[in-house]
Target: L-lactate dehydrogenase (cytochrome)
Amino acid sequence: PPLSEILNLHDFEGIAKQVMPEKAWAYYSSAADDEITNRENHSAYHRVWFRPQVMVDVTKVDWSTTILGQRSSMPVYITATALGKLGHPDGELNLTRAAAKCGVIQMIPTLASCSFDELVDAAQPGQTQFLQLYVNKDREVTKRLVQHAERQGIKGLFITVDAPQLGRREKDMRMKFEAEDPSEVQKTGSDGVDRSQGAARAISSFIDPGLSWKDIPWFKSITKMPLVLKGVQRWEDALKAYDLGLAGVVLSNHGGRQLDFARSGLEVLVEVVEHLGKERGLVFPNDKFQLFVDGGVRRATDVIKAIALGATAVGIGRPFLYAFSSYGQEGVECALKILEDEFEMNLRLLGAPAIKDISRTMVDASNLSSH
Ligand code: FNR
Model:
């Protein structure tokens, strides 16, 4: 169908499933084990209801914001997803170019199909990019990448902490990944790769399961970029990150692709806000320690719920993959435009003319648990 018939982010998924190579569909859509967390990532948002405020002048509405001090046209960023060329020959370049057009921030994955330099060179002057980091067992490799990224103008480093070992994505494993085309995967410097268990396992053997809190001072010594831990899943770890002086955390379960039965980021958000409030007097959102959420976000209403509960912004993954796999760069631009239209309407209906006007009182989250 033509792009004009796409009404929402879910639509891209159905189309991608039809048009994508089976191997790519398996890698993009799969989640861990029985995919319970993947489903929960969506259902958690269904437990939050709005308490709109009426009789507010909403003639003008503005959904722009700042993320780690950088301007963004909306409180959404394109999160890191590996292997873009499985879905489209231009891979992650589709995301870079669409992000430029729509004024959103792209998080470049360590395991992009395009090289890091290609994605940085494709950015427009002033365009913000972050880097997602898988930490290599060889710390010199990681140090070189981080320092190169900082010199190239990357504005935030998101260290993935929920993947000391890749989860079992059985749909993907059944496809028995064979990288016929070595250019599909950016060189990772990993030899002896096991290709018998799907795309994910095949490319991830360099990731260091020894990564720990002890490494944080080292990261701080090699870069001045804001450091964010991606994949935090309990308030105790968010508190440690804050106490160590990090810039924020992404409350995420990796799109349900790691530990099955991990909770939704939205559930975790509620407990983090409560406990960091109690323990350190923090009020969210704030500029000193920012909370991000990803997993299952498909509507501006999902984003608004997370913001009402204290998030600064949310990451979206699969819908952009499905969009470029089906329609290239234009598909991603269309997805972002749909979100913009949704923000405009829903902020009006909620009585919040700007992102900063979205308040805790605008949601009923009593069906989310907090411990
Ligand atoms: C991911 N994700 C991910 N995260 C990360 O830190 N490094 C990575 O290389 C990848 N790769 C990756 C590939 C694919 C195909 C998917 C779907 C996801 C996780 C990603 O950043 C994010 O946490 C989730 O995708 C968010 O959930 P949704 O929006 O896809 O539901």
Summary: The pocket of FNR is lined by residues 27-28, 41, 79-82, 109, 111, 132, 160, 230, 252, 254-255, 257, 294-297, 315-318, 321 (CB under 6 Å). Residues 318-350 form the longest helix (33 residues).
